[in-house]
Write a structure and sequence with these properties.
It contains two helices and six strands; from the N terminus they run αββββββα. It is of the alpha+beta class. The protein has a domain of 72 residues. Strands 1-2-3-4-5-6 form a six-stranded antiparallel beta sheet, with no helix packed on it. A hairpin with a 6-residue loop joins strand 3 and strand 4. The longest helix has 14 residues. The chain is flat and about 45 Å long. Keywords: Cuticle, Signal.
Length: 113
């Protein structure tokens, strides 16, 4: 999660040197789930939540995360909603190509293990 947040913040810094974080909230619940959101002075907004599912042996398991971010570019607001889990990162946005049919051709990750 921190990696995604860091990448978003770096993108903000590159895109608009005067942009600042206007609001940042982060919370971790007792069950290990978390919720994070931020907004910048140049209109970028992001939110993310997730939970850890431990595996049967140490150092195994996975996080299931979901979120969204939006930004404005040349007068158009772009929004991406996404999920990330053991099957990878899955972004969806009106401006992004639809790769959902790809799984029909290659199958799920479990099919190749």
């Amino acid at each position: 999660m921190k990696t995604i947040l860091l990448l978003c913040l770096v993108a903000v810094a590159v895109a608009d040197q005067s942009a600042r974080i206007a609001n940042y909230q982060y919370a971790i619940a007792e069950d290990g789930s978390y919720d994070a959101r931020y907004r910048t002075t140049n209109g970028i907004e992001a939110q993310e939540d997730g939970i850890s599912y431990p595996g049967n042996v140490p150092e195994s398991g996975n996080y299931v995360r979901s979120g969204s971010y939006s930004y404005e570019w040349e007068g158009v607001t772009y929004t991406v909603t996404w999920t990330a889990d053991e099957n990878g990162y899955h972004p969806v946005g009106d401006h992004l190509p639809d790769f959902s049919h790809t799984r029909e051709h290659i199958g799920e990750i479990q099919d190749h293990l």
